[in-house]
Amino acid sequence: METKPRIWELDALRGIAIVCVIFVHLVFDLNYFLGLRLRLGPVFEAVQAYGGAFFVVLSGVCVTLGRRSFRRGLIVFGCGMLITAVTAAMAALGLADGSIVVRFGVLHLLGLCMMSYPLWKRLPVGALAPLSLVLVLSGYLLLGRRFDVDWLFPLGLMGRDFSSGDYFPLLPHLGWFMLGAVLGRTLYGPRQSLAPRFPAQAAPIRFFRFCGRHSLWIYLAHQPLLYGLVWALARLR
Predict the structure, then answer these.
(1) For residue 70, what are the domain limits?
(2) Do residues 223 and 83 touch, judged by C-beta distance below 8 A?
(3) Would the pTM count as exceeding 0.70?
């Protein structure tokens, strides 16, 4: 059966996003281990603050173009649990303090969002768009608040002593994911590129497209590589 070609700009944007994630994590590791206290200006701060939401929206766009979202979500969530296990082991072995343990990071979130997609994908855009905004606003109302419960952190209800090395709760991020699905259904209904005449075969674009196609595995690989490299540099000082 003939399959439609991949939409180049979505791969490229996902690739740019994963490169930004790697850079943000590199700066964090340099600050954490070497105490450099790097300050890179407002552009970096904007990427750090909003890059995660952009990536989640983009993932919502992409989920409307693929199949077997539940199966893919299980894989992504499983990768998130692997990160939890590895970071917990690092803390237990004294390689880092407990704050590095990722209890509910971006892969946990995206996995659950993908698995939930079959439950609400048939909602009309007119219902899905306001629902996504309600979830986003609800999440930002919860931002920074602490509660006397310790097990509702996936929703965004953080316990008094909760910490996570990477934290992407369902509120507001499920709302961002749904908003991405709205954009996917409205902008990419024909499943075609919005810029078919763009020189997408140029070398920089091909690089970002490659990163976007393999973003999950790049995400999994970059963390131990960066962490190990900077940790080794810290020991040589």
Answers:
(1) 8-236
(2) yes
(3) yes
